[in-house]
Write a structure and sequence with these properties.
Layout lengths: L1 H22 L19 H12 L3 H13 L6 E2 L6 E4 L4 E4 L2 E3 L5 E6 L2 E8 L5 E3 L4 E4 L1 E10 L9 E8 L5 E5 L7 E2 L2 E4 L5 E7 L5 E6 L2 E7 L5 E8 L3 E10 L9 E9 L10 E5 L2 E5 L8 E9 L13 E5 L6 E4 L8 E9 L4 E3 L3 E3 L6 E6 L6 E2 L4 E10 L5 E13 L12 E6 L7 E8 L3 E2 L8 E11 L4 E18 L2 E16 L6 E17 L8 E4 L4 E10 L7 E11 L11 E2 L3 E5 L4
Parallel strand pairs: 2-10, 13-19, 29-43
Antiparallel strand pairs: 1-4, 3-8, 4-7, 5-6, 5-9, 9-10, 11-12, 11-14, 14-17, 15-16, 15-18, 18-19, 20-21, 21-24, 22-23, 22-25, 25-26, 25-27, 28-30, 30-40, 31-34, 31-39, 31-41, 32-33, 32-40, 35-36, 36-37, 37-38, 41-42, 41-43
Helix pairs in contact: 1-2, 2-3
């Protein structure tokens, strides 16, 4: 009876296993209803075995069930990590070490993201195993699977879990010479100092503590601001090799890997020799050349160009036309030019310590300060009635190749007839030099012209002025008459834009007896003579006509008004202009003139 019950139970177990297999609910137990794990037997044979056993072969069924039981392999148990664990790393990959428990004598296979990474990890006598050489995971999600193998080659179900590799941002920073210049230092730093100080600026997670070490010595700790920026200055380096390390600790306690920077410091006290700059213009191209630098720490040539003749091309203040880093280079071609303009160049030689030395200033093509003037007819009637204006327009053109200023000089104003100082009313005129395009601008104004005036600098034909003074002594009934006659003549030969003027003075004094009628002369006149010379230069009048660019045209106007001149009284106005350089010196060979501007009063009220 007991035997029959045992056979019945075995049969029921076999049938249950068959049903689970057929319906797909059977666990994947190696060797059970598997042709692969049962040698050459197929499912039909396994069923036949169970069927024959049901007919009474109880011994064969016991043996087969034992074989099925021995084919089951336990899955490994992982102790080192838990599924979903976040691991912090310093790079896109990280090596981790796994350990856990399994049946002794088994071997462990490790799969990472579907790929077999390690095999042959032996479970020791205590049922423990460990990945001694480590397993590499990547940034982000990683799926880890561990499978146990027994001595028969049967495998367990995989133990599967997930690990997440979190890689915080690296500390990013750069080393500069100082906070003001912000010249970035790479591998080599050339300086004039024995122990230079440098400046570090970088970015990391906001609110982190940033640690900075130089040459194995901690030199500073700062915090990154709310935007992640941090900075530290006065970081001392030494001559020779230096190593800087920067790392961070985040608010949640993560310590980043240190980022290293190696800098070799060279002391350089020698300034490069300046180059001699030469060149020429051909067509619309300027060619310049210089001697190659012999400085051992040569860095670059900087070609600096300006258009204003009043500026010396300075580095780094002015535009750099080119940067040349090849020490043996000795020439440059500039074809980015405006036709008809002169340009001013310097070549600056820089060394790696920051020294910069300039060449001479070279102008290409040679600067030309020339100006033309032409009359613009405005009125045909040159007469002007009382209290009315007369206008004569001119157009000035810069015909040179540089921007220049134009200085009004050497005006003369002649009245005809010459005024009689004894008259109660003498001719009165008003003269202006005016910018008609900007009505509020006057380059010259004189509102009370009573006398003829001629500049000494242009008085080459000579002029004579006579002054007469009388003094009466009523007690002695005598009269003294003093006549002073001054003649001036300017020589045409120039001396540094100046001329030599000779002044001849004759003073004659005569006594008269006023008790007689007419008064009689007493004795001979007393006459004194004096001759002197003086240097005169072009006389500036009014204000500059400024910033006249090459080819630019500008209008000016001579305005004359009759204030109290009588009928047919005349005035002649003559203005001269000279180009002026940056030092305010005149180019007297380039003087232009309005020539005589003639105006006659009609005397009309």
């Amino acid at each position: 009876m007991v035997k029959n019950i045992k056979i019945l139970l075995q049969f029921i177990l076999a049938l249950a296993l068959m049903v689970l297999y057929i319906t797909g609910c059977m666990p994947d137990v190696p060797g059970l209803f598997s042709a692969e794990l049962s040698g050459d037997k197929d499912i039909g044979e396994e069923v036949s075995l169970i069927k024959s056993t049901s007919d009474g072969d109880v011994g064969d069924l016991d043996s087969r069930l034992n074989d099925l039981k021995e084919g089951l392999v336990s899955s490994p148990v992982i102790l080192s990590h838990v599924s979903g664990q976040k691991i912090f790393g310093s790079g896109d990959k990280e090596v981790i070490y796994l350990y856990g428990l399994a049946e002794k004598g088994n071997e462990i296979e490790v799969y990472v993201n579907g790929l077999l990474e390690q095999v042959g990890i032996v479970v020791d006598e205590n049922g423990k195993f460990e990945t001694v050489s480590g397993i590499e995971i990547i940034k982000g999600k990683n799926i880890i699977e561990l499978v146990a193998l027994n001595s028969s080659g049967r495998k367990s179900s995989p133990t599967k879990f997930e690990l997440f590799l979190s890689v915080p941002e690296k500390v990013e920073y750069a080393v500069y010479n100082n906070p003001a210049d912000l010249e970035k230092i790479e591998s080599y730093y050339y300086t004039e100092e024995n122990n230079p100080y440098v400046y570090i600026r970088g970015i990391y997670s906001a609110g982190s503590n940033i640690y900075i070490q130089a040459n194995d010595r901690m030199i500073g700790e700062v915090s990154s601001d709310e935007s992640g920026f941090f900075a530290l200055e006065d970081i001392g380096l030494k001559n020779g090799d230096n190593e800087i390390a920067v790392w961070a600790v985040t608010p949640d306690g993560y310590v980043s890997a240190p980022i290293f920077t190696s800098i070799t410091v060279f002391k350089d006290m020698i300034t490069p020799y300046p180059s001699n700059l030469t060149g020429y213009n051909s067509g619309n191209v300027n060619y310049i050349s210089w001697e190659a630098s012999i400085d051992d720490n040569f860095d670059a040539y900087k070609i600096v160009r300006v258009e204003d003749p009043c500026e010396n091309p300075e580095y780094p203040d002015d535009d750099v036309a080119a940067t040349i880093v090849y020490q043996n280079s000795t020439s440059y071609i500039d074809d980015d030019l405006e036709a008809g303009r002169s340009y001013y160049y310097t070549v600056w030689t820089l060394d790696k310590a920051g020294h910069a030395v300039s060449s001479n200033v070279l102008a290409i093509p040679k600067p030309v300060y020339t100006v033309s003037i032409s009359k613009v007819e405005s009125f045909t009637d040159y007469s002007v009635s009382r209290r009315e204006w007369f206008y004569q327009y001119f157009e000035i053109t810069n015909t040179g190749n540089v921007t220049l200023d134009l200085q009004p000089i050497m005006a003369w104003i002649k009245l005809n007839p010459e005024p009689d100082e004894e008259m109660e009313i003498t001719p009165l005129w008003e003269v202006h030099l005016w910018d008609p395009d900007n009505p509020g601008i006057y380059y010259y104004s004189d509102e009370e012209i009573y006398n003829t005036y001629i500049s000494d600098w242009v008085n080459t034909s000579g002029s004579i002025t006579v002054e007469k003074e009388e003094e009466i002594d009523y007690d002695n009934l005598t009269k003294s008459v003093t006549v002073t006659e001054v003649s001036k003549k300017t020589e045409k030969n120039d001396v540094n834009l100046k001329r030599i003027m000779t002044v001849y003075t004759e003073i004659s004094s005569t006594e008269f007896d006023i008790s007689t009628s007419p008064p009689s002369q007493i004795g001979d006149p007393e006459v004194a003579y004096d001759t002197s010379t003086e240097i005169v230069e072009p006389e500036k009048i009014g204000s500059l006509i400024e910033d006249l660019k090459p080819g630019e045209k500008r209008k000016i106007c001579v305005k004359v008004q009759n204030i109290s001149a009588a009928n047919n009284e005349e005035i002649i106005v003559h203005f001269n202009f000279a180009p002026v350089d940056c030092d305010g010196s005149f180019f007297i060979d380039e003087i232009i003139s309005t020539h005589d501007v003639y105006c006659k009063s009609s005397g009309r009220n």
